[in-house]
């Protein structure tokens, strides 16, 4: 059996105000095949990349006018969901959804770090071998590729995640008035970067999905009713990024060659 590492991105979940429209948008922009997950009593849809790897889940937001704005949530692996939630609360974080079992998948919870950025935890069911096409794969188009934390206190944020997941500091980049961009890693690879709030009104996580061509991705985002807020912009290493909102307002980003 493979053991579960701590803090590796493993799932991406969209809560949206229009599930049908969002499904069509991401199918076009990221090349996903969207299908019903078959969960009893709930319209939960799965986004599968062209290589057959299941990357994401999508669901309609409940609560009508009281529902939160549409959002993407990143889930990180943990060996013990309940113990991790307890440790996060002790460290000043918040539990947003208590640990619960998903039949055939594992045990999950939703929490927020001490600065208020929400994220998910997942203790996957034991597997005999690693997944052939995991949701997070920096070499695969349509998969999770990078993870950015905008934080009201990025230094405290990094200390929190280092304590919870064992994440380590990588390179830093000076972004002028935006402050320092701190790359972080886990499991022997770079996972993403942390920075100040910038234009974000609250602390939040932002997922990046892999693209086969950034200009084509931007064209599809705009044609589908989404909005480009930054980019295309070149980043160190030669890749290009674009930050966007989908037609319902959920933030996401794409990264790939030009």
Overall average pLDDT: 93
The proportion of strand residues reads 35-45%
Using the coordinates above, name the CATH class: Alpha Beta
Structural class computed from helices and strand pairing? alpha+beta
Protein name: VOC family protein
Organism: Candidatus Phosphoribacter hodrii
Domain VOC: 8-124, 143-257
Pfam families: Glyoxalase
Brief overview, please?
With 258 residues, this protein is α+β, with helices and mostly antiparallel strands. The protein has helices spanning 19-30, 81-90, 154-165, 214-223, and strands at residues 9-16, 33-36, 44-48, 54-60, 71-77, 94-102, 106-112, 118-124, 144-150, 168-174, 180-186, 189-195, 204-210, 227-234, 240-245, 251-256. The strands form two sheets. An eight-stranded mixed sheet has the order 2-3-4-1-5-8-7-6, covered by helices on one side. Strands 10-11-12-9-13-16-15-14 form an eight-stranded mixed sheet, with helices on one face.
């Amino acid at each position: 059996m493979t053991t579960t590492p701590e803090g590796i991105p493993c799932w991406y979940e969209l809560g949206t105000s229009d599930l049908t429209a969002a499904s069509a948008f991401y199918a076009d922009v990221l090349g996903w095949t969207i299908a019903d997950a078959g969960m009893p009593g709930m319209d939960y849809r799965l986004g599968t990349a062209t290589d057959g790897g299941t990357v994401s889940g999508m669901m309609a937001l409940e609560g009508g006018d009281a529902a939160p704005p549409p959002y993407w949530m990143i889930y990180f692996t943990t060996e013990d969901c309940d113990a991790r939630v307890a440790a996060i609360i002790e460290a000043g974080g918040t539990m947003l959804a208590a640990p619960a079992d998903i039949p055939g998948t594992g045990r999950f919870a939703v929490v927020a770090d001490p600065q208020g950025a929400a994220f998910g935890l997942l203790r996957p069911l034991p597997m005999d071998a690693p997944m052939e096409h995991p949701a997070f794969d920096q070499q695969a188009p349509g998969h999770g590729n990078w993870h950015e934390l905008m934080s009201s206190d990025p230094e405290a944020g990094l200390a929190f995640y280092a304590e919870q997941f064992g994440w380590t500091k990588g390179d830093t980049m000076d972004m002028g008035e935006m402050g320092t961009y701190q790359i972080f890693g886990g499991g022997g690879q770079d996972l993403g970067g942390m920075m100040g709030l910038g234009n974000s009104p609250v602390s939040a996580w932002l997922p990046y999905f892999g693209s086969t061509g950034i200009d084509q991705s931007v064209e599809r985002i705009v044609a589908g009713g989404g909005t480009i807020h930054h980019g295309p912009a070149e980043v160190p290493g030669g890749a290009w990024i674009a930050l966007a909102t989908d037609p319902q307002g959920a933030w996401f980003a794409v990264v790939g060659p030009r």
